[in-house]
């Protein structure tokens, strides 16, 4: 072998894991930074909304109309309660609950099948029965963990 010829030196076995650690660290940092930003903006929104609410409530005309609306809302709820006792309304309310529950179950099953579809076909698009092209998306969100 010539001294001028460089042999291909395999990358260190630790290099990929170092890159993975750096990427994981960056992602962790970014997630935490976005969480902090979201909390900060939510606090600012809360303060701005409070300022607007105070401005409205300091106006006498706004307060008068608001009080009238509260009274009308009470009357409306009383009427709804009396109408809600009718058998036909109760039946419709029960039907709505049943349909909402069924819809939730079907959407849950669809989500599971869409996950299988993506894994099987390696595609994030699907054509529905009407010929419309639909995109399959994953949804992630952050929720407060309940203490056990």
Helix fraction by DSSP (H/I, runs of at least 4): over 70%
Specify the biggest β-sheet. 2 strands, antiparallel
The helix-strand sequence is HHHEE
- N→C terminal distance: 67 Å
Average pLDDT works out at 88
Q: What is the 3D shape?
A: flat
For the biggest β-sheet, the strand order reads 1-2
Radius of gyration: 29 Å
Query: What is the helix tally?
Result: 3
> Which structural category do the helix and sheet elements fall into?
mainly alpha
Count of β-strands: 2
Q: Spans with pLDDT under 50 lasting ≥5 residues?
A: none
What percentage of the residues does DSSP assign to strands (E)? under 5%
Describe the structure.
The protein is mainly alpha-helical and 148 residues long. Strand 1 and strand 2 form a beta hairpin. The radius of gyration is 29 Å and the shape is flat. Helices cover 70% and strands 4% of the residues. The longest helix has 44 residues, at 14-57. The protein has a two-stranded antiparallel ribbon with strand order 1-2. It has a domain at 16-85.
Write the layout of secondary structure elements.
Elements: H1 14-57, H2 60-84, H3 87-121, E1 125-127, E2 133-135
Q: What are its keywords?
A:
single chain; 148 residues; mainly alpha; two-stranded antiparallel ribbon; 3 helices; 4% strand
Describe this structure in a few short sentences.
This protein has 148 residues and is mostly helical.
């Amino acid at each position: 072998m010539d001294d001028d010829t460089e042999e291909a030196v395999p990358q260190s076995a630790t290099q990929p894991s170092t890159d993975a650690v750096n990427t994981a660290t960056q992602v962790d940092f970014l997630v935490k930074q976005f969480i902090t930003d979201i909390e900060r903006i939510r606090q600012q929104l809360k303060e701005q909304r409070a300022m607007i609410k105070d401005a409205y409530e300091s106006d006498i005309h706004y307060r008068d109309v608001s009080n009238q609306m509260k009274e009308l809302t009470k009357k409306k709820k009383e009427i709804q309660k009396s109408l809600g006792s009718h058998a036909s309304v109760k039946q419709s309310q029960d039907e709505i609950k049943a349909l909402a529950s069924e819809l939730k179950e079907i959407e849950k099953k669809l989500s599971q099948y869409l996950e299988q579809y993506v894994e099987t076909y390696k595609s994030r698009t699907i054509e529905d029965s009407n010929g419309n092209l639909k995109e399959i998306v994953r949804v992630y969100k952050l929720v407060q963990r309940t203490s056990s």
